[in-house]
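Posting this for the archive.
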Amino acid sequence: MQSVSEKIQLFHELLGCGRELYYTTLTPSLTVRESSCPFSGHLPALLRLHDKNDPFRHKLVPFAESGTPVILSSGTGLIWAVDYEKDPGRTLQAYHLLGPVQLDDVPAQRIRSYLSDLNLKLSDARQLLTQISALPILPINHFHNYGLMQHYCLTGEKAGADIFSYTDLSPEKSPSGDEAPELSMAHGTWAMEQELLKLIEEGNQDYMRQAARLTASGRMAPLGNGDPLRHLKNAAIIFTSLCARAAIRGGLTPETGYSVSDRYINLLEGASSLEEVSRINTQMQEDYVARVHACRSKDRSPLVQNTCQYLQEHLSETLNVPLLAKQMGYSVSYLARTFRQQTGMTLHEYQRTKRMEQAMAALRAGDEPVQSICHRLGFGSHSYFTEQFRKHTGMTPNDYRRHNGQN
């Protein structure tokens, strides 16, 4: 069985196999023990390790005690994933920092302004400016994945992105609370947004789980001019406006949809930390889903609502109506009749429609082979899938991708 040291060493070696990400290990007393970062000598200054207010220690110690990994940002627009190595007695042995990376292409003037306060030699400042400007730019959800790998190597725990907390070394942007937020920021590729908005339009109560799956493959656009807080804030505000429109299509009145949007946009503008933006963004999405679900439920009985939910969650499976009716506690004839009265479709038509919607979203999103989409959604053969897709859209899957694909 591999030790923690062996696991983390392997992880560090793997980081150099693709897009190279740097790592740094700090001792509990906050000295650099090991680093692959080319400007490791300037890391204490960038991380403000020796400031008289000691912001790194002050902000990270509570998270270290609880073992909560942190996404840490600095005034340069850089972010790190911070985690902890502890002995069997839970005594801190080291801080492990993954990064830094950029969420956005940080303007040189912003970096230069920040470096001017570090009292560096002119030659050192120029070199550091060049090195920081060359750092990789990663979407936050992709960076989460690397952070989760680091967390697994250190703890053996498999977790999701909601395990991270967020903090900033800039005093004016310090977090307002200690609770770990959920970050399911949904600004990214057009196709990913469409899938998320469709779930809101449906009032899908499984929204947050599906959103976490979708955002793992998406990308946030650069919206913050190098400022991580502004970047996430802008992304959340844009998505709030899109959610309002989706909710209105789902049945909310325009007055309700836009008034809810205005309220959350005002909250987002007033947010002072990454954590607060994340919390408000999650609350906004859950609020719209709940409102649309309540609105649509007025016209559908619990039986039909539960049946729709079941079909949505089992799209890839062959529909067995007698078994479904037994699970719902009704006869086949009553279930089929009631479902058609309230949805305007038979059970098989509803399942086929939802499968087509998933297939269309997948074709818009990227390069997944048509054959793979066909099998993933439970179609028996490629030819049958193509036939059904042509009936639904008037095009073959390949034609649809050419006309509607992301590119």
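The chain has a mean pLDDT of 80. The two ends are 46 Å apart (CA to CA).
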